[in-house]
User: What shape does this take?
Amino acid sequence: MSVPPQRAEPSRPPARGAILLAGGLIVLAILAAYHASFAGPFVFDDIPAISENTSIRHLWPLGPVLSPPHETGVTVSGRPVVNLSFALNYAMGGLSVGGYHAVNLLIHACAALVLFGVVRRTLLQPALRGRFGADALLPGLAVALLWAVHPLLTGSVSYVVQRAESLMGLFYLLTLYGFIRATEAGAARGWWMLSIVACWLGMATKEVMVTAPVLVLLYDRTFVAGTVRSALTARWRYYAGLAASWLLLAGLVMSTGSRGGTVGFGSELTAWSYALVQGWAVVHYLVLTFLPQQLVFDYGTDLRKDFADVLLPLVVLASLAVAAILGWRRWPASAFAGLWFFLILAPTSSVVPVASQLAAEHRMYLPLAAVVAVLVLGGFAWLGRSALAACAVLALVAGVLTEQRTRDYTSGLALWSDTVAKLPGNSRAHYNLGLALAKEGRMAEAMAQYEAVLRIHPGDYEVQAAAGGHARILDSAYLKTRFVENSSMTPSVFLVDVEIPVLN
Assistant: This one.
């Protein structure tokens, strides 16, 4: 059944000190979990998006900054707000990587605080106030804290270039938070503008933002207006402002040429093949939510699943999706969490192929919040305030695991070694580990990694060319003999940067 149309009462100014204390606790927990990330170097896609990105070297004129490179589908391609954030970093500290990590942590902390506000004020809505209203601050704190320190988000925070995901997540949450505040009685009109501006900025940050106007409408229908028609009738100008941002996104997407040909139906990867992999990947993300020990930096492009491999995951996903849809009328508040999860994952984890990344843990940045919210609020509904102790223990464990995981990001060698150990069939990981080993002068070990790539992909001439180049530099008779037939394939390009850019 639908929530009857009504306007939310303004939340009582709870103890402001308690809210500030909760926010401070969230920030301190993030700093404790991610303190080691400041030592992490630029790796992988950081190289073309930051180190080699000349468009971030000057803040003025803004034209080049807001028109990032797009020919090769580099991470900043078609994402001017992300590129601008890197330009600001460069203006403050050049290529000093610590400053980039500091901004990533600041973005993540802001996102966690906004999520805290979204959850707390949602629990004060008429549909949920009867059950949670008196304790809105505590479950809101628990959700935001667990989400903020969950190890599944490490890649979105410690991997500099994935600022694209966390910054988009911040704008997504601000869009919803601004709407929630605007619909409270006596709210300032500026909240409507904040929501619309955040939506537009999000569209210029990452394409996943495309679902934000729809999710806000579903929130309106679930917790405020009662029906979609009532929501659109009462606030059509606002929704027109949100929907207009799709025009900006469409223009940015077209300017990138399908992100260098790596996204869309024009690649060799079919929609069916990609959908099969995503059936496995989404369930894998859910497993990592509860058992985050097998986190992987880069899943590569070698994930191939047939129907038998993904039959069970597809059954699980179909069951969850059906439950969310059927529960929409009877338990709309609970079903909203399911819709949040599937809607935000849909652009990257459904049928539109992203050939350069068949799976990526950073895609769970916002969807994870829905899973955590269901678990935490379910615990509070069942145990009351006693659930807070369990949440505190879980947050402590999650924070420790995150702190340990961030140490893998302190060097490219450690990161690729970990990836190869967990996904030995990942040719891209073997290749990049070989490059990292070569930079350390460990050429024999590097050659072993190149040979692993050739076993996975016989005839990979790029790898053979790189190996030939290393042979010439070392003047190694053994390596020259092994790769002599490919040593003339202009391999020097592979020796300029240790991490070869791969599109994201």
About this structure: The first helix runs from residue 16 to 34. The chain has a mean pLDDT of 85. The radius of gyration is 24 Å.
